[in-house]
Fold this sequence. Notes:
This protein is an alpha/beta fold. The protein has a single domain (38-65, 81-235), classed as 3-Layer(aba) Sandwich (Rossmann fold). The protein has eight helices and ten strands. A six-stranded mixed β-sheet has the order 6-7-8-3-9-10, sandwiched between helices. α3 runs parallel beside α5 (151-164) and α4 packs across α5. The chain is globular, with a radius of gyration of 18 Å. The mean pLDDT is 93. Bound molecules: adenosine-5'-diphosphate and magnesium ion. Adenosine-5'-diphosphate (ADP) binds at residues 18, 20, 25, 27, 45, 47-53.
Amino acid sequence: MSALPPPVIEMAGARKTYRSGQIEFEALSGIDLSVTEGEYVAIVGPSGSGKSTLMNILGCLDVLTSGSYRLGGEDVERLSEVALARVRNRQIGFVFQQFHLLPSLSALRNVELPMVYGRVEKTERRERAAAALERVGLSDRLNNRPGELSGGQQQRVAVARALAGDPTMILADEPTGNLDSASTDDVLGLFDELHAAGRTIVLITHEHDVARRARRMVTVRDGLIVSDGATQEAAA
Ligand SMILES: Nc1ncnc2c1ncn2[C@@H]1O[C@H](COP(=O)(O)OP(=O)(O)O)[C@@H](O)[C@H]1O
Ligand SMILES: [Mg+2]
C-alpha cells in the first residue's frame, strides 16, 4: 500500500441555494469533489453553470446551504467569519480575471501588500515578495508599475502575490479571461511550472481550450458535476 498525498479539498453533497424574497434558486445541487495535494484541476462549464458559486465556496468567500467542505483537513463549514478569513489568508492564493493590482504601486509593493495585512515583518516581506517575483520570471521588473507591464506580466505579478504567502492551493478564477492568446500561453506555461514544482492548482474557466491544459478536468452543468477525468496533458 502506498501513502496517498493528503487531501486539500474534500467536498460532499454540496448544495447552495440563493434566496431573494420568495424566490429560491439552487446554484449547486450536490457536488462531490476531492482534490489531493499537487493536483492541477480545471473546473469548466458554460456561463450560469455554478462555477463562480463553487469558486466562492472553495475560496471560503461564501458558505454552503448544506453538505460539507473540508479545506486542508479543516471543517470550513463550522468556522466563524474571523476564523474563515484566517483560513482564507493562510491556505488560498487567489488569482482573478481582473488582476486587481494597485496601479500606483510597483510590482514588488503589490506582491508585498497582503503580507502587510498579514503582519509579516518588513524585511521578510520584501524578501518573500522578491523571491515570488523571481519565481514567476519577473526579477527584472520589481520596480515597474502595472501600467508598464504587459497583460501577461501583470497576471504573473498577481500569481507572485498569490504565491508569496505559500498557500495550500492556488485558486484561479478565469485567469486568462482578460488576456490575448500569447499572454494566455504565458500564464498557462507558468501554471505548468508551478504544477511541476508540486503546487496544488484549481483553475476555473469557461474556455475548454484553457481547461484542457490542466491535468484533470471537472465539468459542471446546472450545478452538478457531469464529468471528471484526466486530460491529454496528464498522459503527455
Ligand atoms: N447572488 C445570487 N442570487 C441569485 N442567483 C444567483 C446569485 N449568484 C448566482 N446566481 C445564479 O446561480 C447560477 C450560477 O451562477 P454562477 O455561479 O455565477 O455561474 P457561472 O460562474 O458558471 O457563470 C446562475 O443561474 C445565476 O443566475
Ligand atoms: Mg462566473
